[in-house]
Amino acid sequence: MITAGDFRKGVTFEYENGIFTIVEFQHVKPGKGAAFVRTKMKNVVTGAVLEKTWNPTEKVQEAHIETKFMTYSYTDGELYYFMDDEFNLTPLNYDQVEDALQYIKENDRVTVKSYKGVPFSVECENFVVLRVVQADPSVKGNTATNATKDAVLETGAKIQVPMFVNEGELIRIDTRTGEYMERVKG
């Protein structure tokens, strides 16, 4: 058990038949009245965000999330298969992999998170290098500003890139924001 007074960013716990992690917290001690803890918490399975105010002495059951490094193997169109270091394949559905899917390709390493042996999310690296497979041609003279254009990556993701990026080039992307970082020499 963990008390609300011990909440910190990243603490995971069970609450109302769901598993939540603390996204933001604030311990408040007003001049009058009792102290309280204001939180913003995210359901790790559904992604729903909930704001709640807690009494610092309230107790919740701490949840232990297991993380495992796996390799994306392939998809059969319905399920996505990931292999662990012991060569065991784990099939996951689209809902479990959708956040990472636009930035991973076959043989990429990912982190699979599970609770009580049931996987609920897949996370890719914070920065990945992918090839641009389609990009609008650059317009000469349009480089004085931070102009961008649409580009499609080898995974099918669509992002904004600077005007000087061309088809076939490798670029680094921040997967947390989906933004272009830099060109990579390949």
What spatial order of strands do you see in the largest sheet?
1-6-2-3-4-5
Q: What does the radius of gyration come to?
A: 21 Å
| Main sheet attributes: strand count, strand direction, barrel closure | 6 strands, antiparallel
Count of helical segments?
1
Helix/strand-derived class? mainly beta
The chain-level mean pLDDT equals: 87
In helices, the fraction of residues equals: under 10%
The first-to-last residue Cα distance is 51 Å
Q: Can you tell me the residue ranges where pLDDT is under 50 for at least 5 consecutive residues?
A: none
- In percent, how much strand structure appears in the residues? over 45%
Query: Based on CA inertia axes, which overall geometry fits?
Result: flat
What is the architecture of the largest domain at the second tier of CATH?
Roll
Number of domains: 3
Series of H and E elements:
EEEEEEEEEHEEEEEEE
How many E-type strands?
A: 16
CATH topology of the largest domain: SH3 type barrels
